[in-house]
Structure formats: C-alpha cells, structure tokens
Amino acid sequence: MFNQLRLNAWSMGVRNKLSLPLRVELWNGQRVDFSAETPRVTIRVPNAQALRYLLSPSLYNLGRAYVEGAIEVHGRAADMIAIVNALARATLKRHGRFRLGLPGLGRSRSRDAAAVRYHYDVSNDFYGAWLDPGMVYSCAYFEDGNEDLATAQRKKIDHILNKIELRPGHTLLDIGCGWGTLVIRAAQRYGAHCVGVTLSENQTRLAREQVERAGMQHLVEIRLQDYRDVGGQFDRITSVGMFEHVGVRNLPAYFARINALLAPDGVAMNHGLTTTDVECRAAPYGGGKFIQRYVFPHGELAHLGAVVRAMQEGGLEVRDVENLRRHYARTCALWTENFEAHAEQIKLLTDPRRFRIWHVYLAGCAYAFKHDWIGLYQVVCGKAGRDPATIPWSRRYMYS
Predict the structure, then answer these.
(1) Is residue 197 within 8 Å of 261, Cβ to Cβ?
(2) Total structural domains in the chain?
(3) pLDDT in tens, 301-354
(4) Longest C-alpha distance within the chain, in Å?
(5) Domain boundaries, position 14
(6) Cα dihedral sign for 386, 387, 390, 395?
(7) pLDDT given for residue 2 in this prediction
(8) How far apart are alpha carbons 177 and 202 in whole angstroms?
(9) Do 160 and 261 sit in the same domain of this protein?
(10) pLDDT at 177 (0 to 100)
(11) By CB distance 3.0 to 4.6 Å, which of 216, 350, 355, 360 could disulfide with 187?
C-alpha cells in the first residue's frame, strides 16, 4: 500500500511536468498513462518490490531493472530511451551520486584484456547480424548524409587513410584492429605493409580469415597482442575506437607508446569517444554507471582537452581535429534499426540478458551523441618538434 501511494504521488508529479506516451502496468491490473496520446512505451511492473526502480528512474536503475528482468519494457528502443531520459530529467539531479570514482585506478593488463573479451567476444555472428557487411564497429562517415551504412563505413576508412597520407610501401600499425577491415583496405588501395593488433580472440580469428579471403596475407598480419608489446617503428599508426579502454590517467603513457612506435616523420591518428563534461565525469543520470557495469567494464571517456594535453605529454603534436558527433549519432541510429530488424535472429545468437543490454545500449548511444553528452573526435598527430615543412599547408589533401 505504501508503494502504491508513492507511485500515485510520483506519477501525478511527473504528469504535472511532462506529457509522455508512456503506460505503466502494475501487477494488480492497474494502468497509469502519462498522456492522452497512444502509448509508444509500456513498462510492466510485476510486483510491488520492483516499484523502487520506477520511483527512482535513473538510467542506471531502469536500465538495470530491464536488463535483469525485474521489469518488462515494450516499445522501440529509441522511444524507450527518450522517455526514460525525460523521466530522469524531471525527477533527478544530473550527477550527484551517479558520478564515477577516480579514473584509472586498479587497472592491469589482465583486467584490460578481460574487459575487451567481455565486450567483443560475444560472437562474430552476433555482431554480423547488425553491423555492415564489412563488420566495422566504429563511427561511420556520412560525407553527403544520405549514404547507407556500408558506404559510410567504407568512406570512413578512406577518410582516415587520406588523413594520414598513406602511401605505397608504408608500414601501418592499427591498434585495436577489430575484424581487420581497415588494414585490408590499406593493403588493397596502397600496398601498405600492415599489422593489426587486438585482444579479442574472436576478432583475431575472423580478421585472419578475411585477410586470407582478400588474398592479402603477404601485406597484412593480424596479431592477438597488447599494443604495449608491439616492437619496431611504423610510418603510420591508427587507433580507431580503442583508447576508451585505456583509462584517463593512462592516456599520457598510451600516447607516449604511440610516439615510440612512430617513425620520425610518421603520422598517427586517434579516432575515439570523448565526454563533453570538462571534469571527465560519467554520462548523466546514471547512464555512465550503466555502461560501465553492463557494456564496457572499466571503460572511461576523457574530455577533448584532456586528450590534447595527454598527446602533448606523450611527445606528440596535434595537427588536425575533426568532430564527428553527428556522424556517430547517425551510425548508432542505423545500428539500432538493424538490431531491431534482426531481433529474432539475434535472440538465437545470445542470451536474453545480453540481448536487452545491447538493445538499450545502442539506442542510448544514439541519444547521447544527439544531445551532446559524448563526442567523437579524429585527432591527427605527429612527433612534437618536427620540421613544419613536413606538415601540409591545408586540409585539401584529405578530400582528394
């Protein structure tokens, strides 16, 4: 009865502030609608104990309740995320107790490897069900805005290779190579000698198979290896969607390692997620806490300012910065559409809990990019203090 009274008071307070296409269905048959509009999302609360998630509707609380099966949520993921965010904004503080602890503490190579395996070693078929045919799991590049996902991913890779001015005979290291698409493209287009490293066994296996299918074994090597164990020097280095796993406090050492691996006149490019919070706090309303627990264990996002500083501390000079936030919002929206279009197939490839995690995670990322909670920057750099004559006069070469 007490929870029922709290729910009545809470729902009345929300409806006085918001009109949402939301319906809440209780275990006793009661329904609470939050507008006169036909509900686009329905939350089913199976017992009185589960009401606590709804009465404190942070992104973490409701996300956790959905993932663990404590409540049922029905509707399109994009609608679910929009409504849950509206509830959180109306009833909670933006940060407060959902702020993460000090970044970078307690990290180790074994923990890093375990975190990567948790996220990427679900199964290759799982990712193949909703990614583009090239299996590119990073922000696409919509040059005109109307490209399909496969075209935009190919354009992203070509955009990166143009930015680093890759040339025939160059050596290229791709840190966090995923399923190998970038290094294969670099070998095919430029005849570059490429090494791709990843900590994911599933990615390593499929990437090697794709290298063989492309007939690029003589130019491309895929290694199951930590980037800190790579030796030698490379003319070009790329890191796409990997440095989020490094830890904010470890970024200077990460960039110093890239510096050590980079040839004297080499060019590197880091493509990665950033937070728009200048204090490097987690995404608001408990969204960051949800991501850390269920999606990217030990993942941390730095503000762009912290990234530039860490590059300088690592001995690198920033030469070009491009914001692709709009592109990632579009990418995640297309991934979400693909995921929902192939939902029945995906349910056969994983367990219900992980299905629910990715269902809300992809749509949540699209929302976060759209609303400027997180960003995506490509940062081109070279060794600090080099002769400026080696740096192009303009950005025209990137678009040739």
Answers:
(1) no
(2) 2
(3) 999 999 999 999 999 999 999 999 999 999 999 999 999 999 999 999 999 999
(4) 76
(5) 2-92
(6) positive
(7) 52
(8) 12
(9) yes
(10) 97
(11) 216
Q: Cα separation of 7 and 3, whole Å? A: 6
State the sign of the Cα–Cα–Cα–Cα dihedral 278, 295, 24, 21.
positive
DSSP track, 366-393? HHHHHTTSEEEEEEEEEETT--GGGS-S
**Is pLDDT at 89 greater than 50 in this prediction?**
yes
The verdict on residue 103 lying in a domain is: no
In 3D space, the residue among 207, 238, 72, 55 whose CA is nearest the CA of residue 136 turns out to be 207
Q: Is 365 a catalytic residue?
A: yes
In this predicted structure, the answer to whether residue 105 has a pLDDT above a threshold of 80 is no
Task: Based on the fold, state whether residues 248 and 332 are members of the same structural domain.
Answer: yes
pTM listed for this prediction? 0.91
Dist. CA 157–CA 172, nearest whole Å: 13
Q: Render pLDDT for 361-389 as a digit per residue (tens, 0 to 9).
A: 999 999 999 999 999 999 999 999 988 88
Question: CB under 8 Å to 267, separation ≥6 — which residues?
Answer: 164, 165, 235, 236, 237, 319, 380, 381, 382
Please give the structure tokens belonging to residue 256: 């110093």
Average pLDDT of the residues in 264-269: 97
Count of residues making up the chain: 400
**Domain CATH for 229:** 3.40.50.150
* pLDDT above 80 for 116: no
Radius of gyration for the chain, computed over Cα atoms and rounded to the nearest angstrom: 23
The Cα 155–Cα 162 span in angstroms is 10
